[in-house]
Write a structure and sequence with these properties.
By secondary structure, this protein is α/β, with parallel strands linked by helices. The chain has helices spanning 15-30, 39-45, 68-78, 104-112, 185-188, 272-279, and strands at residues 5-10, 34-37, 61-66, 85-89, 99-100, 117-130, 133-140, 143-148, 155-161, 164-171, 173-177, 200-206, 216-219, 224-228, 235-239, 245-247, 252-266. The protein contains 6 helices and 17 strands.
Length: 287
């Protein structure tokens, strides 16, 4: 049995994962690597799978077969002990994945040769404070979003940075994004594209009532505090697009840089701006 183990987590809801996972396992085994799938993926490849939380304890790298959403879900469940995640894209955009589905053999060769490059990504630490006590703590790779619920009306949010008032946003919502998340929801809200190593966060309002309220960039060591005002009702907090948590009057959301990080494995010649041009279809021409 090989001393090298590769984790495998597939988005089994995608039909392509059922087609790709078995030959992926075979290719790793032909190169002398043992594959450790999670329980759901094990059903697809006819192997005994491990609980997802145990996969990172046994593997040097985990292959994620899916899209950005699969990576976001996996990093949330795997926790801070996760080894590098190598994404093979079966989705549409795939900023976090390293290669497309047709290049999976290249990914196998890269992992077998240990020639992959690791990109360390900053995470958010999000605390929900109620009556002076922290009632919930989460971490996020892309963003934390405060938004309105089912009512089609603006919400008001007071924002302070490092204890100093920034402004009261009157908007559909507010996005606090990491450099990794700057190409996600924050980009569609008019925020800037940040390189992974830029060391900053972006505060981006969603459809602000006052058009002079523009996205603001702050240092990643900043403490960002957000509180609904008395006029705000139906405010919800979501992290990386996951389940929404209600935020009431008197609650405070504190966002800081997490001491934990996420490691993304990529092909050795992958360059951020090449990926950016490809994914955003920046051809450099007028058409």
């Amino acid at each position: 049995m090989s001393s090298r183990r590769i984790g495998l987590i597939a988005n089994v809801s995608k039909s392509r994962s059922e087609e790709m996972a078995p030959p992926l396992v075979q290719a790793f085994e032909e190169r002398g690597l043992e594959v450790v799938p999670d329980e759901e993926t094990g059903k697809v490849v006819d192997m005994k799978g491990a609980p997802r939380t145990e996969v990172p304890l046994r593997c040097e790298v985990i292959v994620i077969l899916g899209g950005d959403g699969t990576i976001l879900e996996a990093q949330r469940e795997l926790g801070p002990v996760a080894p590098p995640l190598f994404g093979i894209n079966l989705g549409s955009l795939g900023f976090l994945t390293s290669v497309g589905g047709t290049a999976w053999k290249q990914a196998v060769d890269c992992i077998a040769a240990r020639s992959y490059r690791v990109s360390v990504r900053t995470l958010l630490r999000i605390e929900l404070i109620r009556d002076g006590h922290i009632v919930a703590t989460e971490r996020g790779l892309n963003d934390a979003v405060l938004s309105r619920g089912e009512f089609s009306r603006l919400i008001r949010l007071n924002v302070c940075v490092d204890g100093a008032p920034l402004t009261e946003y009157n908007a559909d919502g507010l996005i606090i994004a990491t450099p990794t998340g700057s190409t996600a929801y924050a980009l569609s809200a008019g925020g800037p594209v940040l390189t992974p190593e830029s060391g900053v966060f972006v505060i981006a309002p969603i459809c602000p009532h006052v058009l002079t309220m523009r996205p603001v960039i702050v240092g990643e060591r900043s403490v960002i505090e957000i509180a609904p005002t008395r006029e705000a009702t139906g405010v919800f907090l979501s992290i990386d697009g996951q389940s929404a948590v209600p935020v009431g009057l008197g609650d405070l959301v504190r966002i800081t840089r997490s001491e934990e990080t996420l490691r993304l494995a990529t092909l050795p010649d992958t360059k951020f701006f090449e990926v950016l041009r490809q994914k955003l279809k920046w051809s450099g021409t007028a058409v």
